[in-house]
Design a protein that fits this description.
- The strands form eleven sheets. Strands 26, 27, 28, 29, 30, 31, 32, 33, 34 and 35 form a ten-stranded antiparallel beta sheet that branches. The chain has a four-stranded antiparallel beta sheet with strand order 1-7-3-4, with no helix packed on it. Strands 2-6-5 form a three-stranded antiparallel beta sheet, with no helix packed on it.
- The chain is mainly β and about 725 residues long.
- Helix content is about 5%, strand content about 25%.
- It has helices at about 105-125, 145-150, 165-170, 300-305; strands at about 10-15, 20-25, 35-40, 45, 55, 65-70, 80-85, 150-155, 160-165, 220-225, 235-240, 320, 335, 370, 375, 390-395, 400-405, 515, 525, 535, 545-550, 555-560, 570-575, 580-585, 585-590, 605, 610-615, 620-630, 635-645, 655-660, 670-675, 685-695, 700-705, 710, 725-734.
- It is flat.
- Among the domains are: about 10-125, no CATH class; about 315-345, no CATH class; about 370-380 and about 390-405, no CATH class; about 535-600, no CATH class; about 605-734, Immunoglobulin-like, CATH 2.60.40.
Length: about 725
C-alpha cells in the first residue's frame, strides 16, 4: 500500500459508557499501538496494558481498527483516551536469493520504515527546538544527575544550555526583583498557612490600585479616596460622600444598630424615607418631614390630640381601638370594631378571617335585615319548634319569614305522599334518581303503555328478553346481528372465557385477519407473544403437538409429544398422499421405511488431528498436517495431508497415522492416496498405494504390485531427508 496519511495518533474524550474507540492508521501487530488514559483535571497519564485493560482489532487493515476496553476499564468522563502508533523498530523482512521478488513483503517493509519516520517526527514535533535562523553552540550539558538534582535548566552568557541555581535557592530569595510588569494571566497571588500578603511602598511611595473589589476582611484607619471601590467591608471609613448606588446600608453585628449621629448642632437630613418595620419614638415630625412614610408607633404626647395628614392618603392603618367616623375605608384595612353609618363594599367581599368563623348581621331591637330587594324578618324565634319550617314571602308585609307548611307539616312529610303527580317534565338537572336500602326503582306504564327510553347506558344488572339499542350492556341477549362498532368484546368475569358456539352444524366464520396478542395483524392468522405457540391435540389421545417460534434464533420449534406420553411418536411428510419423509426418535427415514436400522441419525463435518503411530519403536514425526471428515449416518469419510515426514527410529516398523475422529467398525476399509518421495518395495513395474482404516483406530498404507505381496509402508520407505509427503482419502463404517 502507499502511505498517504501522516496520522500517528487519535484522541477521544471518555464519557463513562463508550468502550470502543477507533484508530485510523495501519498497524502490523497488536503490540504496535500504545493506549494512554489522561486525567484532564491533573494531567496524570497512565499507559494501559493489552488484554488486561483493552483488546485490539483490525491489525493489518489500511483503514485502521478498534481498541475495545474490557469490563471495568471504561474511560470515564473527565478522561482523555490517546491511541498512539508505536511501530517496533526492527527489520524482519528476509530476502531469499534467486526467489521471485516479494513485492508485498517488500512494500510492507517500506511502509514500516515510513511509519517509524512519522512516529519519530511526531516526537520531534513535541520537543523544544530553536528556530532555523537561530544558533546554539552546544545543546549538551555534562553536569551529572547528582549535581543537577533540584537545579534549574537555563542558558549561560553565550546562550548555551547550563544548569543554574537550585529550586531551593530561588524560593529562598527574600528580595526578588521584577524585570517588568507581573502578569497574573487570570491566576491569583495567594499565601499559605493564613499568611498575609503585604504590599509595602518604600518611604513616601504609595500603592496605587486603580480598581479593587474587597469581598471580606477590613481596611482600618484608611481614607478612601474618590476612586475607591464602592463595595467592601470596613471597620471605619472616613468618606466625603457615601453613595449606596441602589444598595443597602446594613449592620453585620447581631441585632446591631445603625447610628446616624451628626456632630454638634448638625442634623440628619433625610429628604425621603420608607420605614417598613420598627418604631420612631419620641420624635417630632416637623413641617419639612417627608409626606409619605410608614410608622408603627406615633407617640400621642408628641403628636398631640390630632394628626394632620396634610391631604395625604392613609394607605395602611391598623386601628385597635377608638372609632373612625365619617371615613371611607380602603380595600385592605383591618378593623376589629367599627361604628359606621353606611358600608360601601365597592365590589369586594365581606369575609371572616377566623377559622370556620361565622359572619353575623344582627339588627338592633325589632329591626330587620335587608339584602337588596329582600327583607328578612330577623325578629323571629328560632328553635326546635321551627323544625322543617320553610322560608315564605308575605306580599302584604314585604317580609320573608319562617313558616310551617300545610297546618304545621314540614317538607319531610312529602315522603308520605304515596301517589305524587308531576305538573310537568322532571328535570334531574345533572343529578340522579336513587333508591335506599337496595330498593328497586320501578317505571311501570299503565295498561298497554310503554316506557320509551331513547338512549340508555346500563352499567350493571340485567335486561332479559328485550331488544336492546346500541349502547346497552346485557348479561344475555338474543340478537340477529351484533355491531361491535370498532370496540372490543370482553369478559368482565375474573379470568372469564369468551365462547363463540355455533348452533348444530353451524360454523364460526371470521372473514378478516385474526390477531392474537396484537391489534394489527399482518397475516390471516397473526400470533404475537414472548413465546407464540400453537398446540394441536387429538381429543381421543393423550399426547399433543406444539409449534412455537424460537425467538432466540428467529426459527421454529416443533415439539412432538412434549410430555412423552407415546414413545412411538413421529413426524411424517406426505406428498400427494404418499409418505416421503418420516422423523422418529431413531432418526430420518425415507419413502415409508420404518426400520430403525435404516434411520439416518447423524450428520456432521469437522477436522481431525493426524497423529503418527507405529507398531514398534519410535513413531515418525510430521512437519505439517491437516485433516477433515464428513459423517453421514454410520458412513465416515476422512481426508488427510501430511508433509515433510521424518522417519521413526526403526526402519522396519510400520508407518501409521492415528487420531481418527471415529473408530472403524470393520478392518481394511480401503481408500485412495497420492505420495511423493517414497521408496517402493519389490520389483514390480506397476504399483498402487492404498490407505487402509483399521479397527484399532489408525490408517496404514499398503503397497501393491503385480509380483509382490501387499506390503505395509514402513519407516525405511520414507525419505531420510524428511521430504516424504502423503495425501489420502478413506471411507469406512462405524
Amino acid at each position: 500500500m502507499t502511505v498517504s496519511s501522516t496520522t500517528t495518533k487519535n484522541s477521544y474524550s471518555g464519557n463513562g459508557s463508550t468502550t470502543v474507540f477507533a484508530y485510523t492508521f495501519k498497524i502490523f501487530d497488536d503490540d504496535d499501538i500504545t493506549v494512554i488514559i489522561r486525567t484532564d483535571s491533573t494531567g496524570a497519564e497512565v499507559v494501559k496494558t493489552k488484554t488486561t485493560h483493552y483488546t485490539v482489532s483490525g491489525v493489518g487493515s489500511s483503514s485502521g481498527g478498534n481498541v475495545t476496553f474490557t469490563s471495568g476499564n471504561t474511560p470515564a468522563s473527565g478522561e482523555t483516551v490517546l491511541l498512539i502508533r508505536t511501530t517496533a523498530q526492527t527489520q524482519l523482512t528476509d530476502y531469499t536469493p534467486n526467489d521471485p521478488f516479494p513485492a508485498a513483503s517488500h512494500e510492507d517493509a517500506l511502509d514500516k520504515v515510513t511509519f517509524i519516520a512519522q512516529e519519530l517526527q511526531e516526537e520531534l514535533g513535541r520537543s523544544i527546538k530553536i528556530s532555523k535562523s537561530n544558533t546554539i553552540t552546544s545543546s549538551e550539558f555534562t553536569t551529572s544527575a547528582t549535581d543537577r538534582a533540584n537545579k534549574v535548566l537555563g542558558f549561560d552568557g553565550s546562550g548555551d544550555l547550563t544548569v543554574t541555581a537550585s529550586v531551593d535557592d530561588i524560593s529562598k530569595d527574600t528580595t526578588p526583583q521584577l524585570g517588568g510588569n507581573l502578569d497574573v494571566n487570570g491566576n491569583s497571588i495567594v499565601s499559605t498557612s493564613n499568611g498575609n500578603i503585604d504590599i509595602t511602598p518604600n518611604g513616601t511611595g504609595e500603592v496605587n490600585i486603580s480598581k479593587v473589589d474587597i469581598d471580606a476582611g477590613a481596611i482600618d484607619g484608611t481614607v478612601i479616596g474618590a476612586n475607591s471601590a464602592e463595595s467592601g467591608t470596613f471597620a471605619e471609613v472616613i468618606v466625603d460622600n457615601l453613595r449606596l448606588n441602589a444598595r443597602t446600608l446594613s449592620s453585620t453585628d447581631t441585632n446591631g444598630d445603625i447610628n446616624l449621629t451628626p456632630n454638634g448642632t448638625g442634623e440628619v437630613n433625610i429628604p425621603k424615607v420608607d420605614i417598613d418595620s420598627g418604631a420612631i419614638d419620641g420624635t417630632v415630625i416637623g413641617a419639612s418631614s417627608a409626606d409619605s412614610g410608614t410608622f408603627t408607633t406615633l407617640s400621642a404626647t408628641t403628636l398631640g390630640s390630632a394628626v394632620d395628614l396634610n391631604n395625604q392618603a392613609l394607605t395602611n392603618a391598623n386601628i385597635d381601638s377608638g372609632a373612625v367616623d365619617g371615613i371611607t375605608l380602603g380595600t385592605n384595612s383591618a378593623v376589629t370594631e367599627a361604628q359606621i353609618d353606611n358600608i360601601n363594599i365597592n365590589g369586594n367581599s365581606i369575609t371572616s378571617t377566623n377559622s370556620n368563623g361565622n359572619i353575623t348581621i344582627d339588627p338592633n331591637g325589632t329591626g330587620n335585615v335587608s339584602i337588596g330587594n329582600f327583607t328578612f324578618n330577623a325578629d323571629q324565634t328560632v328553635g326546635s319548634g321551627q323544625n322543617d319550617f320553610v322560608l315564605k314571602y308575605d306580599d302584604t308585609s314585604g317580609l320573608i319569614s319562617l313558616e310551617a307548611t300545610g297546618g304545621g307539616v314540614g317538607l319531610s312529610d312529602v315522603v308520605d305522599d304515596t301517589s305524587p303527580q308531576l305538573g310537568g317534565n322532571l328535570d334531574v338537572n345533572g343529578n340522579s334518581i336513587i333508591s335506599a336500602s337496595n330498593g328497586n326503582i320501578a317505571i311501570t306504564p299503565d295498561g298497554t303503555g310503554e316506557v320509551d327510553i331513547s338512549k340508555v347506558d346500563i352499567d350493571s344488572g340485567a335486561i332479559d328478553g328485550v331488544t336492546l339499542g346500541t349502547n346497552s350492556a346485557v348479561t344475555e341477549a338474543q340478537i340477529d346481528n351484533i355491531n361491535i362498532n370498532g370496540n372490543t368484546v370482553s369478559s368482565t368475569n375474573t379470568d372469564g372465557d369468551i365462547t363463540l358456539d355455533p348452533n348444530g352444524t353451524g360454523h364460526v366464520v371470521i372473514p378478516a385477519d385474526i390477531g392474537i396478542g396484537t391489534t394489527s395483524p399482518a397475516a390471516r392468522i397473526h400470533i404475537e407473544d414472548s413465546t407464540p405457540t400453537i398446540r394441536l391435540e387429538d381429543t381421543g389421545a393423550n399426547g399433543y403437538v406444539q409449534i412455537s417460534a424460537n425467538n432466540a434464533r428467529g426459527g421454529l420449534t416443533i415439539q412432538l409429544d412434549p410430555d412423552n406420553v407415546d414413545s412411538s411418536t413421529d413426524l411424517r411428510v406426505q406428498v400427494d398422499g404418499t409418505e416421503v419423509v418420516r422423523v422418529t426418535s431413531d432418526g430420518l427415514l425415507f419413502n415409508g421405511d420404518s426400520a430403525a436400522a435404516n434411520a439416518l441419525d447423524d450428520y456432521e463435518e469437522g477436522t481431525w488431528t493426524l497423529t503418527p503411530q507405529t507398531n514398534s519403536g519410535t513413531a515418525a514425526s510430521i512437519g505439517t498436517a491437516s485433516g477433515i471428515y464428513t459423517k453421514v449416518g454410520r458412513l465416515v469419510t476422512v481426508t488427510g495431508v501430511a508433509t515433510n515426514i521424518t522417519p521413526g527410529g526403526t526402519a522396519s516398523s510400520i508407518f501409521r497415522i492415528g487420531g481418527l475422529p471415529f473408530t472403524p467398525a470393520n478392518e481394511n476399509s480401503n481408500g485412495s492416496a497420492s505420495w511423493e518421495n517414497i521408496t517402493f518395495q519389490g520389483s514390480s513395474t506397476r504399483f498402487y498405494f492404498a490407505p487402509q482404516a483399521r479397527m484399532a483406530g489408525y490408517i496404514q498404507f499398503i503397497q501393491c504390485g503385480d509380483n509382490n505381496t501387499d506390503t505395509a509402508l514402513d519407516h525405511g520407505d520414507l525419505d531420510a531427508g524428511n521430504t516424504s509427503d502423503i495425501e489420502f482419502t478413506v471411507t469406512y463404517m462405524v
